[in-house]
C-alpha cells in the first residue's frame, strides 16, 4: 500500500470511529487551527480529529500506528513555539482534545481535582473556586489554554515562586501511548517506586510520547486575602536585592514577583484600554509582588506588605510603591503585567525568547547582555520582563521601526536567536524555561544541548514511538 493509500485508509477509519461530530476535513474549518498563536508557522492537515473520550483517543492512535499516520495533538492552540502546528506536507491529522472537557471529580478533603485534558484553565479555576479551593497556576492565556496542553508543555506562569510548575502540581495522568495502549495513572500516589515514572515522561513531552487524556491535579486553599504591590526601582540588581529582602521577611506568603521595564509599561498604557501607570513618577524598572493569605492564623497581607515596603523604601531598594487597596486594583495591576505580550504585538514585530538562568545571575544577564544584543543588531530594542523570582525572563528583541515583518523575521530570527541563546548557554541556562521547544527552538536545542541529553531524548522517543507518529518534528532533534 502506498503512503497516500495508507493515509486515506486511515482517514476513512477515523471518520467511521468518530462520526460527524469528531471528524472534519473541511478546509475552511481547519484553517484557524493550522497557524500558531504568534502567526509565525502555518502548516497543512488532512483532517481534524476530535474524540469525545479516551476510548476514542485510543482507537484513533491504534489506527494511526497501523497506517503510520502522523498525529499532531492540539489543545487551545495558544502555545508559543509552534508545538501544536503541523508541517506543510498535509499528511498529518490534527488531534484536538477540546471536546474532552469534563471535570470528573473534585475531592475537597484531599484538595485534588481530576479532569479531562480539554478542560480550559479558566473553567477549572471557576469550578474549584466554587468549592472554596483554587488551582494555583495561572497565565495570560487562561481563557484558551487547556489542561492537556499545560501538562504537555510543563507550563509555568506567575505563581511558580510558591507552587512550582505544572510538574509539581500534577498528581497523576491518564495517557494513550503511541501504540494505542493506555497508561492508567490517575491515582494520586505520594510514593510509587515501580521503576521509571511515566507520569513525568508525559509532562513536558509536547505530545511526542503520547496523548494526555486526563489528569489529577493538586489544589490549594482558596485565598482569604491578598495584597498586590507595585514598586518602582532603578535596576534589575535592585529588584533582585528586593526579592531576597522580601523572601526573608515574608517567606511562604510571597506568591509572585515580576520584573518589568518602563518601556513595557508604556506599551501597555498606549495599546490596552482601561490601563494606566500605577506610579506617578517614571521609573526605569517596575516590580509587581503578590502577598497572599490562605490561613486564618497568618497575618493580613496588607499589613505584611505595608511593613515590608516601608523597610524596602528605607533601605533604598525601591524608589516608590503603591499597595492595592481592593481586589479591583489588584486585578488592574495584574492586567498590566498580563497584557505586555499583547501590547508588544500592537507595537510591531519582535522576537520572543523564553529563557532561564540561575536566579542569582538573571539581573547580571539583563544588564550585561542586553547592550551586546542591541549593538549586534542595530536598531533593535530588548524588552526583558517576567518571573525574576524563578530566574525566568521573557527576553524579547523588538525590530527597528519601518521594517517589513515577514522580511525581518526571515532575515533575523535565526541570527538573533543564536546570539541570545549563546549568551544563555554561557550562563549555564536554558533556552526554554516554560514555553517548550516545539518547532521554533528545535535547531537551537540540537546545537546547544549536552550530547547526553540529546542521546536520552532520542532514545526515549524511539523506544516509545518507533513509528514516529506522535507530533513529528517537535522537541526531539533528529540525529
Could you explain the architecture of this structure?
This protein has helices at 3-22, 27-30, 54-67, 121-129, 147-152, 160-163, 166-169, 198-202, 236-250, 262-271, 301-314, 327-338, 340-347, 359-376, 405-426, 442-448, 451-464; strands spanning 23-24, 48-49, 71-74, 93-96, 103-107, 112-116, 133-134, 170-176, 182-185, 211-218, 220-221, 225-233, 254-261, 285-293, 320-323, 350-356, 381-387, 392-398. A 5-stranded antiparallel sheet has the order 5-6-10-8-9. A 4-stranded mixed sheet has the order 1-2-4-3. The chain is built from 17 helices and 18 strands. Strand 5 and strand 6 form a beta hairpin. The model has no long low-confidence stretch (mean pLDDT 95). It has 4 domains: 3-99, 2-Layer Sandwich (Uridine Diphospho-n-acetylenolpyruvylglucosamine Reductase, domain 2), CATH 3.30.43.10; 103-221, Uridine Diphospho-n-acetylenolpyruvylglucosamine Reductase, domain 3, CATH 3.30.465; 225-340, Alpha-Beta Plaits (2-Layer Sandwich), CATH 3.30.70; 348-435, Alpha-Beta Plaits. The protein is α+β, with helices and mostly antiparallel strands and 479 residues long.
Q: How many domains is the backbone divided into? A: 4
Q: Major β-sheet, in short?
A: 5 strands, antiparallel
CATH C-level label of the largest domain: Alpha Beta
CATH architecture of the largest domain: 2-Layer Sandwich
Oligomeric assembly: single chain
What portion of the residues fall into strands of 2 or more residues? 15-25%
Residues in helix, %: 25-40%
Cα radius of gyration in angstroms:
23 Å
> Tell me, what's the shape?
globular
Mean pLDDT: 95
* Structural class determined from secondary elements: alpha+beta
The stretches of 5 or more residues where confidence is low (pLDDT under 50) are: none
Instruction: Please count the helical segments.
Output: 17
Stated plainly, the CATH topology of the largest domain is called Uridine Diphospho-n-acetylenolpyruvylglucosamine Reductase, domain 3
Number of strands: 18
Amino acid at each position: 500500500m502506498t503512503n497516500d493509500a495508507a493515509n486515506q485508509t486511515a482517514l476513512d477509519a477515523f471518520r467511521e470511529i468518530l462520526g460527524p461530530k469528531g471528524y472534519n476535513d473541511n478546509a475552511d474549518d481547519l484553517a484557524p487551527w493550522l497557524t500558531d498563536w504568534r502567526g509565525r508557522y502555518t502548516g497543512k492537515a488532512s483532517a481534524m480529529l476530535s474524540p469525545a473520550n479516551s476510548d476514542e483517543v485510543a482507537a484513533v492512535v491504534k489506527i494511526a500506528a497501523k497506517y503510520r499516520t502522523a498525529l499532531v495533538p492540539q489543545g487551545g492552540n495558544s502555545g508559543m513555539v509552534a508545538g501544536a502546528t503541523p508541517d506543510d506536507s498535509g499528511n498529518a491529522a490534527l488531534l484536538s482534545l477540546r471536546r474532552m472537557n469534563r471535570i470528573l471529580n473534585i475531592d475537597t478533603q484531599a484538595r485534588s481535582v481530576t479532569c479531562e485534558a480539554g478542560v480550559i484553565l479558566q473553567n477549572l479555576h471557576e469550578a474549584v473556586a466554587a468549592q472554596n479551593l483554587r488551582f494555583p497556576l495561572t497565565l495570560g492565556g487562561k481563557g484558551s489554554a487547556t489542561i492537556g496542553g499545560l501538562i504537555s508543555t510543563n507550563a509555568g506562569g506567575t505563581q511558580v515562586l510558591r507552587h512550582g510548575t505544572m510538574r509539581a502540581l500534577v498528581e497523576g495522568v491518564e495517557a494513550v501511548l503511541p501504540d494505542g495502549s493506555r497508561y492508567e495513572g490517575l491515582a494520586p500516589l505520594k510514593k510509587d517506586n515501580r521503576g521509571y515514572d511515566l507520569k513525568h515522561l508525559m509532562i513536558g513531552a509536547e505530545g511526542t510520547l503520547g496523548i494526555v487524556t486526563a489528569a489529577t491535579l493538586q489544589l490549594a486553599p482558596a485565598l482569604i486575602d491578598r495584597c498586590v504591590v507595585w514598586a518602582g526601582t532603578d535596576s534589575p540588581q535592585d529588584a533582585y536585592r528586593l526579592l531576597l529582602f522580601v523572601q526573608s521577611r515574608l517567606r511562604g506568603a510571597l506568591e509572585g514577583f515580576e520584573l518589568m521595564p518602563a518601556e513595557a509599561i508604556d506599551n501597555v498604557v498606549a495599546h490596552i484600554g482601561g490601563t494606566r501607570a500605577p506610579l506617578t513618577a517614571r521609573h526605569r524598572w517596575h516590580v509587581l509582588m503578590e502577598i497572599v493569605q490562605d490561613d486564618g492564623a497568618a497575618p493580613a497581607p496588607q499589613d505584611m506588605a505595608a511593613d515590608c515596603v516601608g523597610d524596602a523604601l528605607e533601605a533604598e531598594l525601591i524608589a516608590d510603591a503603591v499597595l492595592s487597596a481592593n481586589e479591583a486594583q489588584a486585578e488592574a495591576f495584574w492586567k498590566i503585567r498580563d497584557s505586555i505580550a499583547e501590547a508588544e504585538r500592537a507595537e510591531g514585530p519582535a522576537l520572543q525568547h523564553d529563557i532561564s538562568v540561575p536566579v542569582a545571575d538573571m539581573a547580571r544577564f539583563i544588564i550585561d547582555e542586553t547592550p551586546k544584543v542591541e549593538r549586534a543588531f542595530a536598531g533593535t530594542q530588548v524588552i526583558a520582563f517576567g518571573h525574576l523570582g524563578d530566574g525566568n525572563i521573557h527576553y524579547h528583541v523588538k525590530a527597528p521601526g519601518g521594517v517589513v515583518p515577514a522580511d525581518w523575521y526571515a532575515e533575523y530570527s535565526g541570527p538573533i536567536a543564536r546570539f541570545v541563546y549563546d549568551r544563555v548557554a554561557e550562563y549555564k541556562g536554558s533556552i526554554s524555561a516554560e514555553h517548550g521547544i516545539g518547532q521554533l527552538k528545535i535547531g537551537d536545542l540540537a546545537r546547544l544541548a549536552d550530547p547526553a541529553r540529546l542521546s536520552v531524548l532520542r532514545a526515549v522517543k524511539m523506544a516509545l514511538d518507533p513509528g514516529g507518529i506522535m507530533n513529528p518534528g517537535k522537541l526531539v532533534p533528529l540525529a
